[in-house]
Design brief:
Elements (H helix, E strand, L loop, with lengths): L18 H5 L5 E2 L3 E7 L5 E3 L2 E3 L4 H11 L2 E2 L3 E14 L2 E12 L2 E16 L2 H7 L5 E7 L6 H19 L7 E6 L7 E5 L2 H15 L2 E12 L2 E12 L7 E4 L2 E8 L3 E6 L5 E5 L7 E4 L5 E8 L3 E5 L6 E5 L10 E7 L2 E4 L3
Parallel strand pairs: 2-8, 9-13
Antiparallel strand pairs: 1-5, 2-3, 3-4, 6-7, 7-8, 9-11, 10-11, 12-13, 14-15, 14-18, 15-16, 16-17, 19-20, 19-22, 20-21, 22-23
């Protein structure tokens, strides 16, 4: 049977003394009398333990800051911890903490008290935003056509979504500003805080809209011993867009899905699908857009033909159907070019 070398009590010992003697005048946790809690004046997030985080209110933030400030002795781990917060005033919060620790299989309960002092500041992110900081410029342009306003809106919405997704992993990612081009072919410049994110987004947009990318870099500064470049990513959309009608090598095609390097076209005569690179289609001529399609009522339909009512002269018209084509809800989309009517494939 072991015994305490200090008081002589028999039973389990810790470093040769009993539990009572071992715990005498000993604490396994410590907490400063005051803990400073910084809150960003602009975004409202709190600086805690080297990170900026969002909290429901000051009390929740004070609890988090106090609990993270708790320190333990060597060979001690926290098993359980809870806290209560009382606001002394709008900038000072009394925090009481109950903590259970394990020190070499000895379980001990302790109480801690501190005052959390709330201070106002500006986080690095908001400071950069206010200073219009950016590392990348995403330039949205087109080739040989004017960008539609709704087309620019769609692209900017996509960019905004991608930036917000990246910001969930890194709060330093944001858009500094957006400049829309007035006159000419239109377009937009998006200023992004991160060069790497700008690169990823430029490729996402290029792949979705079949655009080409060119980038130019300029040394901005040095950060932690490495060069930081300001890069401009020019994303130039082709002269055609999804759903356009174009003439290429004396044949009419419907523009289908586009990727960075190529586009899928449907021959409006044969219904066959072909794929061309964007470089191949430099001389292609756009002759119509989705907005030019017309609705036509189906009168009769067979395996090979469909009879419609011409939407302009209201006369019956028989058209040969492309492969795997069937009307839907008694109507079809047609495109009229030089008085010739074409069925638009689904």
């Amino acid at each position: 049977m072991s015994f305490c070398v200090k008081c002589g009590a028999e039973g389990p010992t810790y470093e040769r003394v009993c539990r009572s003697c071992f715990l005498e005048n000993k604490r396994f946790t410590r907490l400063p009398d005051h803990v400073d809690l910084v809150r960003c004046h602009h975004c409202g997030e709190y600086g805690i333990d080297g990170r900026w985080v969002a909290h429901l209110d000051h009390e929740h933030a004070a609890e988090d800051a106090a609990m993270r400030a708790v320190e333990v002795l060597k060979d001690t781990s926290i098993e359980e911890m809870s806290a209560s917060v009382v606001a002394a005033d709008s900038a000072n919060f009394k925090v009481h903490i109950d903590v259970t620790v394990d020190h070499k299989r000895l379980v001990v309960e302790e109480e801690l008290d501190t005052i959390v002092r709330l201070k106002s500041s500006v986080c690095d992110r908001c400071s950069k935003i206010k200073g219009s900081y950016f590392e990348a410029i995403l330039q949205i342009r087109s080739r040989d056509r004017k960008l539609l306003e709704k087309e620019i809106d769609e692209i900017l919405d996509r960019v905004d979504k991608l930036v917000r997704e990246a910001a969930t992993e890194n709060r330093e990612v944001f858009v500094s500003k957006v400049d829309r081009m007035v006159g000419g072919s239109g377009g937009a410049d998006v200023y992004i805080s991160s060069n790497s994110v700008g690169k990823i987004i430029s490729r996402e947009i290029a792949d979705q809209y079949g655009a080409e990318i060119k980038d130019t870099a300029k040394l901005l500064t040095q950060k932690e011993g490495r060069d930081v470049y300001r890069v401009t990513y020019l994303v130039r959309l082709p002269s055609y867009r999804f759903g356009d009608m174009l003439v290429f090598r004396k044949r009419m095609y419907l523009v289908g899905p586009m990727r960075t390097n190529n586009v899928k076209l449907t021959d409006m005569k044969s219904g066959e699908s072909v794929t061309y690179s964007h470089n191949d289609l430099v001389d292609a001529k756009v002759i119509g857009h989705r907005e030019d399609y017309l609705d036509a009522v189906v009168l009769t339909e067979s395996d090979r033909e469909v009879q419609i009512m011409h939407p302009k002269n209201f006369r019956p018209l028989e058209l040969r159907k492309p492969p795997r084509f069937w009307s839907k809800d008694g109507s079809v989309k047609i495109f009229i070019h030089e008085d010739e009517v074409y069925l638009v494939p689904k």
